[in-house]
Amino acid sequence: MGEAPPVPLREQIELLRAVRGAAPALVLNARIDTYLKGGGLEETIERGRAYLEAGADCIFPITISARAEIEAVIDGIEGPIAVMDVPGLPPLAELEQIGVARFTWGSGLAKEALARAAQVAERALSGQPPAAA
After folding, report:
1. At residue 1, does pLDDT exceed 60?
2. Cα–Cα distance measured from residue 25 to residue 23, given in angstroms and rounded to the nearest whole number
3. How many of the other CB atoms lie within 10 Å of CB of 69?
C-alpha cells in the first residue's frame, strides 16, 4: 500500500481558514506533504502560497532537505518556512543564513531516547551492571 495522495488544496485551504477563524492568536505552522507523497517543488510553492493566504503563519514542507529546494520554496512562497531534521539537511547555521524560520527534530529526539532506553534495559536484563552516565 502506498501513501495516500495529499489532501485536495481547496479542502486544506478551507480547514486552515476555519482554524485561523477559530483561534486567531494560534501560531499556525501548515504542514505540506508534497515531498512525502510524490509531489515536488512547484506543488509545494503553490500550496505554500495558498496556505499563507488562508492564514498560516509558517509553511512546513516536511522532509524537504536540499538547500536549493529550501531556498526556492522560501523565495517562491515569499514567507517563512519550517524544516525538519532529515538526512541531507544543511547545518543549522546554514539554514538560518538562507532564511529558514523554524527547525524541528520531529520525532528524532524521542527515537534516540527510546533507542538508548532499550540499550539500558537490555544491559540490565542481561545481568550486566548499570552503565556509567
Report:
1. no
2. 6
3. 17
